[in-house]
Design goal:
The structure is a homodimer of 133-residue chains. With 133 residues, chain A is α+β, with helices and mostly antiparallel strands. Helices cover 17% and strands 35% of the residues of chain A. Chain A contains three helices and eight strands, in the order αββαββββββα. In chain A, the strands form three sheets. Chain A has a four-stranded mixed beta sheet with strand order 2-1-6-5, covered by helices on one side. Chain A is globular, with a radius of gyration of 16 Å. Chains A and B meet through helix 1, strand 1, strand 2, strand 5 and strand 7 of A and helix 1, strand 1, strand 2, strand 5 and strand 7 of B.
Amino acid sequence: MTEGFTALVAELRFDQHGLVAALAQQHDTGEALMLAWMNRQALEETLRTGMVHYWSRSRDALWRKGESSGQTQRLVELRVDCDGDALLLLVDQHGVACHTGRRSCFFRAWRGGTLVEIARPAVAPAELYGEKE
Amino acid sequence: MTEGFTALVAELRFDQHGLVAALAQQHDTGEALMLAWMNRQALEETLRTGMVHYWSRSRDALWRKGESSGQTQRLVELRVDCDGDALLLLVDQHGVACHTGRRSCFFRAWRGGTLVEIARPAVAPAELYGEKE
């Protein structure tokens, strides 16, 4: 671990579970892809490998984005917000970010007093996860 | 409260504090502005008024963005992610989103193994908050 990384971690305000929110955004189009969570280990692995890792709250485990689905995220730039409790990940998303097979997890919009789907799956979930789905 | 709103709330997974993460993005440029938190009341006021409200975790209070600083956010569209624990707010940001006077709260980037400031304040914080700063 470098001195720089230690200084970076010191700027972050991890919550009581040791997590910060991380928003992944496609670096060249600005598309908001997904929001997930990172702990210190996920951040370290992301910076070390250049591939985005999160902490899965449901599985309580380190999770390299795309490890099951192949839909990886290459880190282009990491940004930190003013109070250190959120990260912005500028990424190059390979394929789709959402486990539903859609490019973005934010595929439902509030329009006319109701929630409507504004994007269809680009890939079938069964294709992403095979037998596991 | 409309039936639609009740249905919307039913799609959300509020955390143990009754909050969901909300990412504000400038609707026409895609710029990621800030990450904050909403509870049911903040969401309801946002949809009712068309101006973004958050829940301040530090003050434990409803907070209309810009109520002190004048730097308001007009809601253009609300989006919900696949598992209902994050909101994407497409907004029209009046002035600057960050309390430091910068357009975006994500003004620090990890470059060359160190955290560097990539944006300067557009407005002095003292101008935003007057005597309160």
